[in-house]
Specification:
- The chain has 250 residues and is an alpha/beta fold.
- The chain has a single domain, classed as NAD(P)-binding Rossmann-like Domain (Rossmann fold, 3-Layer(aba) Sandwich).
- It has seven helices and seven strands, in the order βαβαβαβαβαβααβ.
Length: 250
């Protein structure tokens, strides 16, 4: 494994499972020190243990990223633990309510926008403050294929993920000249715990939406995040990268 991120510090939200877990583990394999954050402390600490067993430096910090104060503390704790913040993957998210738009509950709307969009803004804001002092950094915001297209019964999720792309493009322009790159990744349907409540029939229907003929793997998304974090992507900022098995090409 190429240790191209040796000595750098990475922060990953929603890192206890799924894509976030895969990203955290791959950061460690590439030599980075990793701050693992999630609301699930037990699984989050298991990811830290796995990182340490593989020889990486890692810590866990429990944070509800829907709360700006906790996002601020998360970033501060990362710098206190490791000295820098070089890379961040703002990944935490939920599927939220499944309802047609007129039936979507007000509480459900507020919750999904807070967890999937506001949280990215909160984390981005405080990550940028640190990276501006350093004069360098790379931030990857986790959007979705549904950040580009709509789908029935997911008004909140679709809106939030579209918003993540707009926020990414705006911030990327603002900070490009100051050494900070900001990009968004758009996974297709990935075989993670986020799909745990879906029936076998529903999962099969989702597979059919991907020309490649299967769901994605979290590790395949993580590989893109690592590339965007590294100097190999030094001319890449303000971009949206689908990793979707051909979903958006249909």
């Amino acid at each position: 494994m190429d240790k191209d991120l040796q000595g750098k510090t990475a922060l990953v939200t929603g890192a206890a499972s799924g894509i976030g877990r895969a990203v955290a583990l791959l950061y460690g394999q590439h030599g980075a020190k990793v701050m693992v954050s999630d609301i699930d402390e037990e699984q989050g600490r298991q990811v830290v243990a796995k990182l340490k067993a593989a020889g990486a430096e890692a810590r866990f910090f429990k944070a509800d990223v829907g709360d700006p104060a906790q996002c601020y503390r998360l970033v501060q704790e990362t710098v206190a633990a490791f000295g820098t913040l070089d890379m961040a993957c703002n990944n935490a998210g939920i599927t939220g309510e499944l309802s047609r738009t007129a039936d979507y509950s007000l509480d459900g709307w507020q919750r999904i926008i807070n967890v999937n969009l506001n949280s990215v803004f909160f984390c981005l804001k405080y990550e940028l403050e640190v990276m501006l002092k350093q004069g360098a950094g790379s931030i990857i915001n986790m959007s979705s294929i549904l950040g580009q297209v709509g789908t029935p019964t997911l008004a909140g999720y679709v809106t939030a993920k579209h918003g993540v792309i707009g926020l990414t493009q705006t911030a990327a322009q603002e900070y490009a000249a100051e050494g900070i790159r900001i990009n968004a990744v758009g996974p297709g349907y990935i075989d993670t715990p986020l799909l745990k409540d879906f029936s076998a029939e529903t999962k099969q229907a989702l597979v059919a939406l991907h020309p490649i003929g299967r769901l994605g793997r979290a590790e395949e998304v993580a590989e893109l995040v690592i590339w965007l974090s590294s100097n190999k992507a030094s001319f890449v900022t303000g971009s949206y990268y689908p990793v979707d098995g051909g979903y958006l090409a249909r």
